[in-house]
Design brief:
mainly alpha, Amino acid/polyamine transporter I, transmembrane helix, germination
Length: about 375
């Protein structure tokens, strides 16, 4: 790992692509209705504060990954157990994103295709990218980033040219008060996608300028948050609250409404292409973290040996984790945030930070 390096621009791009990932596909904070964009804003601010905890741990152990310093802070045995749990967590969330991808394509274009076929080809491409290495993935991200941003801006411009957005769909603001938004959507939106930045504790040590990495990462979180806010506002203003609440993939519906004369229409395919890119990077980063962590725990020098094995596990999990899409979404939005995301994204990192603080004070006293 010491020979692998990525620069600040690449880590910025990887974070933005990761954060957009499946969040831009599924839509965020739907229970907040017309105030969903404000709920995303609050979650983004919360995510930036939460990342300060990850940043503190990174500054304390800048040269090693989460799975390494868990063993330093908690001891070899407990540290390895928790580290393995984190690797399992990364694989499981990657499988959930892969399931999102499969559901997206099956509902939009490949209606008659079995999900196993769709997910298999995606995981095959991801496995190949992981085989080539994180540096190649980072360089690929530089190209894909401009494609996504460029097409995203194009969709927004075309939506306004087609006179689709209606400001009245975003009103009234805070109709039920800010407390309702926090109770209904804050934890869900904070943990997905902003809290998922915990995965970058496995990548930050690779950045060539560690002194600037926290600042750049915060800027990336803010950039992706602003983009998600704009997408959320666009979806609501074009479709209205009721359709957004019941739409499987809100952005796809919004883009599908764009029609300018007989020339510009049926942009769904381009939208799906951009969404696939985000999903590809999100799964790749989760699996890279899992593979790196497992290699650390079991002292596997050649990480390429386990790429195929981890990829197959991810594929199988994506197929068996739910009977249908509604069950998949119910588990993902109701159970996963509280019982899985919060412990791994919030509770354990805070405990680690507390232990490192106490250890530091004891050293200073001596």
């Amino acid at each position: 790992m010491n020979n692998i390096k990525i620069d600040l621009k690449q880590i910025f791009i990887l974070i933005v692509l990761f954060e957009l990932g499946s969040a831009i596909v599924i839509g965020l904070a739907r229970e907040a209705k017309q105030d969903a964009w404000f709920a995303v804003l609050l979650a983004m601010l919360g995510g930036m504060l939460l990342f300060m905890v990850y940043g503190h741990l990174f500054k304390r152990y800048p040269a090693v990954t989460l799975t390494n310093y868990l063993q330093v802070i908690l001891g070899k045995v407990l540290g390895k157990i928790i580290a393995f749990c984190y690797c399992s967590y990364f694989i499981y969330i990657a499988a959930r994103v892969l399931r999102d991808f499969g559901e997206l394509l099956l509902s939009s274009t490949l209606v008659e295709t079995p999900m196993i076929i769709v997910n298999f080809f995606m995981i095959l491409v991801i496995a190949y990218a992981l085989y080539l290495g994180i540096e190649v993935l980072a360089r690929t991200g530089e190209v894909c980033f401009f494609i996504i941003v460029g097409l995203g801006l194009l969709f927004v411009i075309l939506a306004f040219v087609a006179k689709l957005p209606k400001i009245e769909n975003l009103q009234p603001f805070l109709e039920n008060g800010i407390s309702t938004i926090i109770k209904k959507t804050f934890i869900t939106t904070l943990t997905f996608p902003f809290g998922e930045m915990i995965v970058f504790t496995m990548i930050l040590p690779l950045v060539d300028k560690p002194s600037f990495v926290i600042k750049v990462s915060q800027k990336a979180i803010m950039t992706s948050g602003i983009l998600l806010i704009l997408v959320t506002m666009l979806n609501i203003s074009v479709q209205g609250v009721y359709i957004i609440e019941n739409a499987t993939f809100p952005l796809l519906k919004t883009v599908g409404k764009i029609k300018i004369g007989e020339v510009i229409q049926r942009l769904d395919g381009i939208a799906i292409f951009t969404l696939i890119i985000g999903v590809f990077f999100k799964i790749s980063i989760f699996l890279y973290a899992a593979i790196t962590g497992i290699s650390d725990i079991f002292t596997i020098k050649n990480t390429r040996k386990i790429i195929f094995f981890i990829s197959i596990i991810t594929l199988i999990l994506s197929l068996i984790m739910a009977k249908n899409y509604s069950q998949h979404m119910k588990i993902g939005l109701k159970r996963i945030p509280i019982f899985i995301h919060v412990p791994f994204q919030v509770i354990i990192p805070f405990i680690l930070m507390g232990i490192t603080y106490l250890k530091q004070r004891n050293i200073l006293r001596k």
